[in-house]
Design brief:
Layout lengths: L1 H24 L6 H6 L6 H6 L5 H20 L6 H25 L24 H30 L4 H32 L10 H26 L3 H23 L13 H25 L11 H32 L9 H23 L5 H21 L5 H24 L7 H25 L2 E7 L4 E4 L2 E13 L2 E11 L5 E5 L2 E5 L4 E5 L1 E5 L2 E12 L2 E10 L1 H18 L9
Antiparallel strand pairs: 1-10, 2-3, 3-4, 4-5, 4-6, 6-7, 8-9, 9-10
Helix pairs in contact: 1-4, 4-5, 4-6, 5-6, 5-10, 6-7, 6-9, 7-8, 7-16, 8-9, 8-11, 9-10, 11-12, 12-14, 13-14, 14-15, 15-16
Length: 588
């Protein structure tokens, strides 16, 4: 009976998603969601992506993903039957809550009748980018993963179940969740970097934080599940983190969709939708807390606090501290405003002052944990080698920001040396996919730390007045403003600067075309940046407003190491996928 019901849910959900996608493709503007997020001239890939580009469609995507996960769990032959039935029942109940929210507040099939518009309002210009195709679905897939983990944790708590099979199942879903959240956050950062014209890769915007916090929880959960596999311990903590990750995904969704924050990323500003999401949060997490209070948590062995296990445990706890620090900084201005205490802003200085030291300490703990058996000679090699390398790099690349550069370089290099030592100590490392995956994921962390340290402390900027015939040298690049052009595109007119880039020897490298666009539908003005991409860093141009006749404010930046951030995310995702590789049981 359960399999039949899930099969019917899958069939009906498929019909719903395909119906909405077809409505976009055939320009059915009688559907209000289609009319508000598309028009007849929109390219078909964006019409498909518009399905999740707004609030109603993204919630349908989330519910559809839960239904697909229901099918995967229901027809799996590897789960213990009682646990499988309980998990499916809980996940179906959560899915019913999502569908109720869709029907009551977020119906993507609501219609404009009898006055059907002749043309749609078009998709938000900021969303007409490949980032829309990649970033939102990956974030929502991560949220779907946490929803599945919530259901599994609830089933385990209800049935007082623990053991190796549960640990493997949780680890599998946590890895999937972590992989897609890693990609989603990286694609979101890359999207904002090249599209918004702000010139940065991370701004600690509340909407960025809303997807970053669950990633931190998933990272901590992965390390706890590693300890669970090694020591058959911490099952209770892992289950609680599954519930916490799901709760924080809903909290982030509430922040993005309730109108309590103002952001260029925000999906909606309807308070009724925010109330519905909070109601769903209370209706699902509330019973989870009741089950924990009533049934307790499964008993498990204790993890040893010394050696590699203790360092891993402490690192996971620090990652959780970082997630709550980010959550506090994100929510504090909202609470301050709700209590009618005025307006307050929590910006990058707060987040950097907390998150950067915690990240450095976690990297240092990981570098020590990776050294086999924690021999003092190996630890001395790691710490001494990283200290010498840090001094050498600062001597070659001096900076005034030593307070930030030294910790970032020292801990990243310590982790890198530890990874190299571990590779030497494990000759068959790359023949064992799971171990190679863990190694690559930590290499990604090294690359991300080095890239972030470089671009945050060695970036060169210039805000200059430029017009035809003027030039400026920035970071050994000569930027020459050749001409101003007027161009038209789909739904916009633009003022475009033609800029020639030369190297230090006067040899032309490229022609860049930054723009200031005005969209004719609502006269929105947006900046379209231009990039000269190089392996060691990007030259970034952003065209500001016209200052005088023929002269514009130009932002010119050289961003060293920025591409290391995107490569780091790719390494992490590849490492996570290798960790999913089926293989014989092995000692970590």
């Amino acid at each position: 009976m359960q399999k039949t019901s899930v099969a019917m849910m899958l069939a009906l959900t498929t019909v719903a998603v395909l119906s909405l996608a077809i409505s976009f493709l055939v320009d059915d503007f009688s559907v209000a969601y289609v009319a508000n997020n598309s028009n007849s001239t929109l390219a078909w890939p964006y019409k498909v992506a518009a399905l999740w580009g707004g609030h109603e469609g993204s919630f349908l995507f989330w519910a559809a993903g839960i239904t697909v996960a229901l099918g995967c769990i229901t027809f799996s032959r590897e789960l213990e039957p009682a646990f499988q039935r309980t998990t499916v029942a809980i996940l179906a109940g959560v899915n019913a809550g999502f569908n109720l929210v869709i029907v009551l507040t977020s119906n993507p099939f609501a219609r404009y009748l009898p006055d059907v518009p002749a043309e749609g309002r078009d998709l938000n210009p900021l969303l007409q980018d490949i980032g829309l195709i990649l970033h939102p679905p990956m974030i929502f897939l991560g949220y779907i993963g946490f929803t599945v983990l919530f259901a599994g944790a609830m089933a385990a708590l209800w049935r007082q179940q623990s053991g190796a099979q549960l640990g493997r199942w949780l680890r599998h879903w946590t890895l999937l969740t972590w992989i897609v959240l890693t990609g989603g956050n990286a694609f979101g950062s890359w999207w904002a970097y090249h599209e918004l014209g702000w010139g940065g890769w991370w701004f600690w915007d509340p909407v960025e934080n809303a997807s970053f916090i669950p990633w931190l929880v998933a990272t901590a959960l992965l390390h706890l599940l590693y300890l669970n596999r090694r020591h058959q311990a911490l099952t209770a903590s892992s289950l609680c983190l599954c519930i916490l990750g799901y709760a924080l995904a809903l909290v982030g969704t509430f922040l993005v969709r309730s109108g309590v924050i103002d952001s260029v990323h925000a999906f909606a500003s309807d308070s009724s939708r925010g109330i519905a999401i909070l109601s769903l949060l209370l209706a699902t997490v509330g019973p989870a807390m009741a089950v924990i209070a009533w049934r307790g948590v499964p008993q498990s062995a204790r993890v040893p606090l010394g050696g590699r296990a203790g360092l891993t445990l402490f690192g996971a706890l620090l990652t959780l501290v970082a997630s709550f620090a980010v959550l506090l900084g994100t929510c504090y201005p909202i609470l301050f405003k709700m209590l009618d205490m005025g307006a307050i802003s929590v910006g990058p200085p707060y987040f950097n002052s907390l998150f950067v030291p915690i990240t450095c300490l976690c990297a240092l703990l990981a570098s020590l944990a990776l050294v086999r058996k924690l021999k003092w000679q190996s630890a001395a090699l790691v710490l001494g080698g990283s200290a010498l390398a840090t001094v050498a790099l600062i001597a070659v690349y001096p900076t005034d920001n030593l307070a930030w550069v030294i910790p970032g370089l020292f801990t990243a290099l310590a982790l890198l040396i530890s990874l190299l030592v571990r590779a030497v100590q494990t000759p068959d490392l790359f023949l064992r996919p799971r171990k190679a995956g863990m190694w690559l994921a930590h290499c990604g962390l090294v690359l991300a730390m080095l890239g972030a340290t470089a671009v945050s402390n060695y970036e060169k900027n210039a805000m200059v007045r430029m017009g035809p015939g003027t030039g400026r040298i920035v970071a050994e690049h000569t930027v020459v403003y050749e001409a101003t052009e007027q161009v038209t595109g789909r739904g916009f007119i633009a003022t475009q600067a033609r800029i020639r880039i030369e190297d230090g020897d006067g040899i032309k490298q490229a022609t860049l075309l930054p723009q200031r666009r005005t969209y004719t539908d609502d006269m929105t003005e947006l900046t379209e940046s231009a990039l000269l991409r190089r392996p060691m860093g990007d030259l970034y141009l952003s065209m500001g407003p016209e200052l005088e006749q023929g002269e514009y404010l130009m932002r010119i930046s050289f961003k060293p190491g920025i591409n290391g951030l995107w490569l780091a995310a790719a390494l992490m995702m590849l490492g996570g996928m290798l960790c999913l590789w089926p293989q014989r049981k092995e000692t970590a």
